[in-house]
Amino acid sequence: MNNYQYLNKVNFPSDIKKLSVEELKILSREVRKEMIDAVSVTGGHLGAGLGVVELTIGLHYIFDTPNDKLIWDVGHQTYPHKILTGRKDKIRTIRQANGLSGFTKRTESEYDPFGAAHSSTSISSALGIAVANKLSNKSNEVIAVIGDGAISAGMAYEAMNNAGTSKTKMIVILNDNDMSISKPVGAMRSYLAKLLTGKLYFSLREKIRLIISAFSKKFSVKAAKAEHFLTSAVTGGTLFNSLGFYYVGPIDGNDLEALIPVLKNAKESKYEGPIMIHIKTKKGKGYSFAEAAVDKYHGVSKFNVKTGIQEKSKVNIPSYTKVFANTLVKHAEKDSKIVGITAAMPSGTGMDIFGEKFPKRMFDVGIAEQHAVTFAAGLATEGFKPFTAIYSTFLQRAYDQVVHDVAIQKLPVRFAIDRAGLVGADGPTHAGSFDITYLSTLPNFIVMAASNEAELVRMINTSVDINNNTTGACDQYEDYTNLYADVTEGQSYTIDVDLGDCSPNSYPSGAKIYIDWNIDGDFNDPGEDVGIIPYGVASSASIPITIPFSGAYGATRMRVVSSFLNNIPISSIGPCDVGVMANPIYIQPWFGATEDYSIVISAANITATYIWSNGLTTDSISGLSAGNYTVDITDGNG
What we know:
By secondary structure, the protein is an alpha/beta fold. It has 21 helices and 23 strands. Strands 9-8-10-11-13-12 form a six-stranded parallel sheet, sandwiched between helices. Strands 2-3-4-6-5 form a five-stranded parallel sheet, sandwiched between helices. It is globular and about 105 Å long.
């Protein structure tokens, strides 16, 4: 760790309380620098944490954590919190094997009272803890920090609706870092927030309520409405006031001098009910490259601190997510009924690519998986073909809708389930371990899991055409073992072909090798007709090839097609002229062949038998004399 003026001396929140506000400002800069340096080595979530450094310091400065319970929503913004709560020396292990979790985790620290890797859970859990304290006659404070994205989910509103009528004190910090709720704040709003949370205002407010209660009910109701209107007009918190919260804000959450007095007033308030403090923060604050980026460096790979350049994958291949998106775009170009849906994860599911091409047919519904599923079901009832792209573990949040609104009604909703299987750094909260199980138990569901990109393409092709069942394709996230090699256009390579059980002894003449270079699910592009294994070689062979065109990813997935049956060779591959051969002769045309075959027969009284690809249908022609004959490839399968 760097040689910091204050951070080196801070191990726990008790150390923060010894500093002045001016010293806290310096500590904020040091925490921000330490976080940038650490994430540059490990990769992880950066932008959100940079935005809440002052808030994190202010909360631990004012409140008595871990006795006072601090709950973060979502936990990816807690890197500064971890640095200040005894985990500073382990911050460079974050999201690594046996290292710190990328989210809050109860088993990791007493300063993490509730695990939060999925969004919108903080108000519900905080209310539960606050009610438990009330029932146990404890006076500890409970604080929930929720982002403006997480608060868009229905669960957050269910919790606020309950909290507003509970008459239980809790503090909710609404961290607004995307200008999605209100306009930028100014000095007057910070002043009003400090005033409206002060003891004088709270005391005056309660005294006025006591006085007007002595008057008629009609007068009391009007007076209460007037007060509600006045505070709402000043602060803009009409919605939250209507839900029963005492709302204050917005204030500058990156200004400690504005933030600390408001937090102090909220802590000392005797108000029996939930308090909402609305703050504005700047995502990516303090790191110019993050501030300038469109995504504010929300999630990053390892990067160069001086240049901001992130490490690129060393494998030049498309992810399953990109293959899904590009394939769906191709279908949508031909089918106007195809629409895309995602729940606040357009880039993570490939729906951003779809949305760029079809902005009016892509719907990002926000962090609202339940709504996304039923919204898709509604579209399906009107003949549209919704592709609902959601992470595997996020779809768990909408299981009732999947069952009740889709499966039971047999509606053709297509679920593209990203992050299926193990996901590595994000840990068990994001591992898609249960999707195949929880979907396979449902009626009217077709579940498909691709083992490679070409299979994924075919699954999408299939799902487009299914209109009487629900389909779900589970993408195995970025597993390319033994499927790819880095290749360069025009460069020559040698590939080793192992035909395995296809040829127990030897592979006969004319075995054709195709490679799907650009992973589009077919073998029709230039250069994908790779080579022929000579007759008599073993089941393994080396074939020299040249990479045909840009966009090739080096897929070693192959199609092997033999030109004969029963190891009896013909003179050349088809469509072809077959030379004079002893009776009998066998021909197997290429799969998908449509051209006719020519056969030269030099003997008399020949019988020709056709055994088609299904192995059952047989046609025979007897008494053929010498001459030239044409084999009509009627079904393309031989």
